[in-house]
Amino acid sequence: MITSETVSEFCRRRGVEAIRQGVPADLIAKVLGVSTRSLYKWVESACGTSTEVLTPQLCPRRMTDEQLGELERLLTEGAAAHGWANDLWTAKRVAELINRHFDVTYCANNVWKILTKRMGWSLQRPVQQAKKRDDAAIEEWVNDEYPAILERARRREAYLAFIDESGFMLAPVIRRTYSPRGHSPVIKTADPHGKLSVIGAMIISPNGKRFSFEYHILDDNLNFRGSSIRRFIETIYQKIERPLTILWDDIFIHSSKPVEAYLNEHRRVVDEKFPHYAPELNPVDRVWGYVKYGRLPNYTPPGLEELRERITVEFRRLQEKADLLESLFRATGLPLLRRQTTTAVLP
Fold first, then answer.
1. What pLDDT, on a 0 to 100 scale, did the predictor assign at position 313?
2. Are 243 and 205 in contact, with CB atoms under 8 Å apart?
3. Which of 15, 187, 262, 315 is buried most, with the most CB atoms less than 10 Å from its CB?
4. Are residues 143 and 264 in the same domain?
């Protein structure tokens, strides 16, 4: 029996007892006038002390390896499969799931330890994919159609040109940055709708030895049309002066009349289409991600002129890094006949 205790000890004991009984942590913290962070620290201390005020029995029992395997299976199904409106796992939701299926009550701190220490999970940013995406068709393209494309290009001794378009906005790509607690950084944008449309091509020599990058930036706030796509293809072909196989998305602009007319006039230039909704297969899509998220996050230029200068510097830097271009290509998982990096200069 507890004969005497301070106010602090009473709050700690009652807080831990309430957590053990399944009372919401936010409610307990509000009643006791403490933060939930302090409450979780009390529970953690309770698990490692044998004092009369905080007994070891207050610590929730340890889940078995078999239960952890079952928990991982449940989590892999996604939060939406367990009644939540969105697929977002938080410590609070995972604790509720554990309590629902295993009748064990954990606080957020213990849930974090289970996920990271025992299961090896970490916070991940979801990758968006279109609902119309056909994974079976994409797998078939990778296993069957792409090797056939490589073989046809090999017979023609053709260069490969992976092509894609993108937009660079004055509104920045946001990434987390360090800042004093409670003071979120403010990023001010000159014009959230201002943009530059860019087309890029990762070009690979027939033997897979040389990687290069070509690009073109349109005038301010313009979009690509069939005529501008045609001019870009023509520029690449004039630099190479060799058979060329283009790989790009199966979208209308790539099959426009100006493009079709150019391909009919230049039989040494052949175009091949990626499967629908599979941007991860195009290495140029990874170029955009590298520049936007790796080099220019939180970048807020005062206008499109400075934005043009900045991305031009980044693209020229990339042109000098054949090894980086090759690594971006390898990230797609697509093979080449040979993989050996030399210079990034076109012949």
1. 97
2. no
3. 15
4. yes
Tell me how far apart the terminal alpha carbons of the chain are, to the nearest angstrom. Answer: 88
Contact 70, 28 (CB under 8 A): no
Residues spanned by the domain of 37: 7-58
Across the strands, what pairs with 159?
Answer: 244
Kindly state the helix (H) or strand (E) to which residue 139 belongs, with its residue range: helix 135-140
Split into its structural domains, the chain has a count of 3
Per-residue pLDDT of 79-101, as tens digits, reads: 999 999 999 999 899 999 999 99
Same domain, 208 and 226: yes
Nearest CA to 299 among 166, 198, 172?
172
> What is the spatial distance between Cα 62 and Cα 68, in angstroms, rounded to a whole number?
10
In this structure, the answer to whether residues 324 and 212 fall within a common structural domain is yes
Residue type, 78: G
Q: Cα(153)–Cα(148) distance, rounded to whole angstroms?
A: 9
Tokens at 74, concatenated: 């449940």
216-255: b (≥16 Cβ within 10 Å) or e: bbbeeeeebebebbbebbeebbeebeebbbbbbbeeebbe
Q: Mean pLDDT, to the nearest integer, of 177-199?
A: 89
